[in-house]
C-alpha cells in the first residue's frame, strides 16, 4: 500500500542525449549548461491549475477503472482514497495524489504518487503483499532516495474484525538500496529481525567497502581492498 513514505525525472530523459558540462571538480557535479537547458525549455510559466473545464481534455478529481464485475481495480485521484485491506478501509498517514492499484477483492496492492508529508513532498512508488508493503521507492525532500524490499509477514486474521486480515504486521526490510542526501550510496542486507548485518558502500574517501555488523549495529569488520593497498 502507498504509505507516505513515481519516480522523478521522466520529462528530463532527453538530457541524456544532450551535452553535459565536463567539469568534475568537487563538490560541483557535472550538469547541463544553461544553454542546454534553454534549448529544451518549453514554457517557463506552464499551466498548473485549471480555471475552467474545456472540451479538449478530461478534468476530474478522481477517475475509477472498474472490472466487468464492477470492482474498482485502479483509481487516479488528486486525493487518493484511504487504503482498503481485506474489505476494511484504514486511515492513510498522509495525503497522497496519484494512482492506486487494487486486486480482484478490492484490496490495495500498490500505486505511485506524491505524498504531502510534513517537511515537504515525498515521491513514492509501492507494490504490496496482501496486507503490507512489499517493495517501495521513495524520493525524500532532502534529496535522499531509497528502494526497499520487505519480507512477507505472516497473514494474521482478527476474529474481532470478522476474521479479516490484520494490516501492518511487523516484518523485516531485508534489502535496502539508498543514496543519502549527501550522496553516500549503500546496499544493506538485514537479518530476519530487520537488523542490518552487511552493508556495501563507498567511503567518504571514495573507497569501495563492505561492512559487517553485529546484532547491535556495530561494524565489526570492513573489507576495503583499495584502501588497504594504499596504507
Describe what this molecule looks like in 3D.
6% of the residues lie in helices and 39% in strands. The protein is mainly beta. Among the domains are: 1-10 and 59-141, no CATH class; 168-231, no CATH class. The strands form three sheets. Strands 1-2-5-6-7-8-9-12-13-14-15-16 form a twelve-stranded antiparallel beta sheet. A two-stranded antiparallel ribbon has the order 3-4. It is flat and about 70 Å long.
Task: Report a brief summary of the structure.
By secondary structure, the protein is mainly β. The chain has helices spanning 34-40, 225-230, and strands at 62-66, 72-77, 84-85, 88-89, 96-102, 108-117, 120-129, 132-139, 145-150, 157-158, 164-165, 173-179, 185-190, 196-202, 208-213, 219-223. It is flat, with a radius of gyration of 22 Å.
Instruction: Please give the number of β-strands.
Output: 16
Could you give a short account of the major beta sheet?
12 strands, antiparallel
Query: What number is the mean pLDDT?
Result: 86
Envelope shape: flat
For the largest beta sheet, what order do the strands appear in spatially? 1-2-5-6-7-8-9-12-13-14-15-16
Cα-atom radius of gyration: 22 Å
Structural class: mainly beta
**Unreliable stretches:** 4-25
Question: Termini distance?
Answer: 48 Å
Strand content is 35-45%
Portion in helices = under 10%
Chart the SSEs and their pairings.
Elements: H1 34-40, E1 62-66, E2 72-77, E3 84-85, E4 88-89, E5 96-102, E6 108-117, E7 120-129, E8 132-139, E9 145-150, E10 157-158, E11 164-165, E12 173-179, E13 185-190, E14 196-202, E15 208-213, E16 219-223, H2 225-230
Amino acid at each position: 500500500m502507498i504509505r507516505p513514505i513515481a519516480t522523478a525525472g521522466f520529462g528530463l530523459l532527453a538530457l541524456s542525449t544532450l551535452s553535459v558540462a565536463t567539469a568534475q571538480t568537487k563538490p560541483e557535479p557535472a550538469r547541463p549548461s544553461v544553454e542546454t537547458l534553454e534549448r529544451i525549455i518549453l514554457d517557463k510559466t506552464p499551466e498548473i491549475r485549471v480555471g475552467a473545464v474545456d472540451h479538449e481534455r478530461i478534468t476530474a478529481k478522481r477517475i475509477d477503472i472498474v472490472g466487468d464485475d464492477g470492482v474498482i481495480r485502479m483509481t487516479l485521484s488528486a486525493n487518493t482514497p484511504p487504503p482498503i485491506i481485506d474489505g476494511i478501509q484504514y486511515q492513510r498517514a498522509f495525503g497522497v495524489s496519484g494512482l492506486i492499484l487494487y486486486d480482484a477483492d478490492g484490496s490495495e496492492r500498490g500505486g505511485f504518487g506524491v505524498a504531502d508529508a510534513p517537511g515537504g513532498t515525498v515521491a513514492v512508488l509501492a507494490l504490496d503483499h496482501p496486507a503490507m508493503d512489499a517493495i517501495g521507492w521513495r524520493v525524500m525532500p532532502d534529496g535522499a532516495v531509497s528502494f526497499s524490499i520487505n519480507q512477507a509477514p505472516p497473514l494474521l486474521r482478527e476474529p474481532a474484525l470478522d476474521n479479516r486480515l490484520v494490516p501492518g504486521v511487523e516484518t523485516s526490510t531485508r534489502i535496502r538500496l539508498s543514496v543519502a542526501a549527501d550522496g553516500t550510496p549503500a546496499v544493506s542486507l538485514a537479518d530476519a529481525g530487520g537488523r542490518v548485518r552487511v552493508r556495501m558502500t563507498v567511503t567518504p574517501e571514495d573507497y569501495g567497502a563492505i561492512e559487517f555488523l553485529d546484532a547491535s549495529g556495530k561494524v565489526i569488520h570492513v573489507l576495503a581492498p583499495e584502501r588497504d593497498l594504499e596504507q
